[in-house]
């Protein structure tokens, strides 16, 4: 790799124990240059450059070799990973995306908004009398998992099993994948069996639901095969659960820092629901970076990016870039802001983002209209490292119960 | 009916070019190029493209 101004290029040690995305080191690097060198390739820091490189046809998704890079060369997870939409490229990727996308239509997802809102309120009912709650266990995890159950038509009472299986498979994204791989493979087999039962059921008994739409997807006679359907449903669970759970916790963390914005959301929940979700994603995204790989050597702003170079798009750094946003680290529900890249971008843009947006647009207003004066209970929070995919492990919050909702209804 | 893309919203993600490649295409620089007119049997795929657009920047306009 040729670096024309190597002496000016900041270096970030992403494997250092205390490395954090939300840190002076990353902000200073972003102020100094549009990219940094790291021990895992290049990091793109500025909004402008993340925006253009995230969607560049010269870059491909960079995670296909993740299992091999961590010593896993075969097995159930390995086989699934190699065939999942996350790592497929070109027409192999486009064909599946073309067939799957209509099931994720925002019009179809919007029809589930009322169920997502009822679910949020049901969960809040479970602890609102207590004045405090461990938010991950009491809300974020069951909400994220039961949303998937609603989407997939799985009985919501099975959410605990789905949550456990998906979390176990999620360990495959950690650096301890090799140690965990037997458990990962076993959990993945169970998830695949769930998916196969759903597919076979909808093939025999079609319903007006998401899985049926995938099963019946047909483009000029081309359809998703049973293994493709199974891989896709597993991907939805794998990609949709931890991310939504973590993002809800991060949103609460951000709003606790800005009680005035929380009050605004409580006063105008329907109007500001969308902004609340977008701003939380912008200033505090769970996906802290998105990985790409240079497919063909090209030049960007005088830097030659050699084929094969790993490039990390730093979503948090780009979403809080002062060159693009005024008061960049602060949520502003009334501002008109440029789009963030918390869902990635380009042909690999997150497939499930309309679901995630829709369910969080139900969750945050439900929480804001019922809970006031949020605070973190001292010692009650524990966090994953602020890199990769982050979020709270535990987040115990105290709150006051609002007397009435924004609609003027008694809450109980 | 004609296709119209609001360029102030368009982010050039390219999802439309996956959904309806006869109408939408990303050029070598990754910028969207598209044709406004389309045959009747393309409408279904254009509607898929409108749905899938992450920033909902694609619209159909009447002939009048």
Describe the structure in your own words.
Chain A has helices at 24-32, 47-54, 66-69, 76-83, 90-100, 106-110, 113-125, 135-152, 159-170, 177-204, 210-216, 226-257, 259-267, 269-283, 315-319, 353-370, and strands spanning 11-12, 35-38, 41-44, 59-61, 132-134, 218-219, 222-223, 289-294, 298-300, 303-305, 310-314, 371-383, 392-401. Chain A has 412 residues and is an alpha+beta fold. Chain A has a single domain (6-401), classed as Cytochrome p450. In chain A, the strands form four sheets. Chain A has a six-stranded mixed sheet, with helices on both faces. A three-stranded antiparallel sheet of chain A has the order 5-13-12. In chain A, helix 7 crosses helix 16 (353-370). The model of chain A has no long low-confidence stretch (mean pLDDT 94). Chain B has a single domain, classed as Alpha-Beta Plaits. Chain B is globular, with a radius of gyration of 11 Å. In chain B, the strands form two sheets. A two-stranded antiparallel sheet of chain B has the order 1-4. Chain B has a two-stranded antiparallel sheet with strand order 2-3. Chain B is of the alpha+beta class. Helices cover 23% and strands 22% of the residues of chain B.
């Amino acid at each position: 790799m040729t670096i024309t101004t190597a002496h000016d290029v900041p270096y970030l040690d992403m494997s250092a124990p205390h490395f954090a995305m939300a840190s002076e080191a990353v902000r200073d690097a972003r102020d100094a240059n549009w990219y940094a060198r790291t021990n895992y390739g290049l990091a793109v820091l500025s909004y402008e450059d993340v925006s253009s490189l995230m969607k560049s046809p010269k870059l491909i998704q960079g995670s296909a070799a993740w299992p091999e890079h961590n010593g896993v060369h075969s097995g159930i997870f390995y086989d699934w990973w190699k065939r999942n939409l996350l790592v497929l490229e070109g027409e192999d990727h486009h064909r599946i995306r073309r067939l799957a996308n209509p099931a994720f239509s925002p019009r179809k997802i919007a029809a589930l908004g009322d169920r997502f809102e009822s679910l949020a309120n049901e969960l809040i009912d479970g602890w609102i009398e207590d004045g405090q709650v461990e938010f991950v266990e009491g809300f974020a995890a069951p909400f994220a998992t039961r949303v998937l159950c609603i989407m997939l038509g799985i009985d919501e009472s099975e959410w605990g099993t789905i949550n456990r299986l998906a979390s176990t498979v999620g360990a495959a994204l950690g650096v301890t994948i090799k140690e965990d791989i037997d458990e990962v493979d076993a959990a993945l087999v169970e998830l695949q069996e769930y998916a196969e039962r759903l597919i076979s059921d909808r093939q025999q008994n079609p319903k007006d639901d998401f899985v049926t739409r995938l099963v019946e997807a047909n483009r000029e006679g081309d359809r998703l095969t049973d293994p493709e359907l199974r891989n896709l449903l597993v991907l939805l669970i794998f990609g949709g659960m931890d991310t939504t759970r973590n993002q809800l916790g991060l949103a609460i963390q951000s709003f606790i820092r800005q009680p005035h914005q929380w009050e605004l959301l409580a006063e105008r929940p329907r109007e500001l629901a969308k902004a609340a979700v977008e701003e939380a994603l912008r200033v505090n995204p769970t996906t802290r970076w998105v990985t790409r790989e240079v497919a063909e050597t090209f030049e960007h702003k005088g830097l030659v990016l050699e084929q094969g170079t790993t490039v990390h798009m730093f979503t948090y750094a780009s979403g809080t870039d002062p060159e693009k946003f005024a008061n960049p680290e602060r949520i502003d529900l009334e501002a008109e802001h440029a789009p963030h890249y918390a869902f990635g971008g380009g042909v690999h843009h997150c497939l499930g983002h309309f679901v995630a947006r829709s369910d969080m647009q139900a969750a945050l207003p439900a929480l804001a209209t019922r809970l006031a004066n949020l605070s973190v209970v001292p010692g009650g929070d524990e966090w994953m490292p602020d890199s990769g995919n982050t979020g709270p492990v535990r987040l115990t919050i105290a709150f006051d119960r609002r007397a009435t909702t924004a609609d003027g209804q008694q809450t109980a | 009916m004609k296709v119209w893309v609001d360029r102030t919203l368009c982010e050039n993600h390219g999802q439309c070019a996956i959904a309806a490649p006869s109408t939408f295409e990303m050029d070598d620089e990754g910028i969207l190029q598209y044709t406004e007119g389309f045959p009747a049997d393309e409408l279904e795929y254009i509607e898929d493209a409108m749905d899938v657009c992450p920033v909902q920047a694609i619209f159909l306009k009447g002939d009048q």
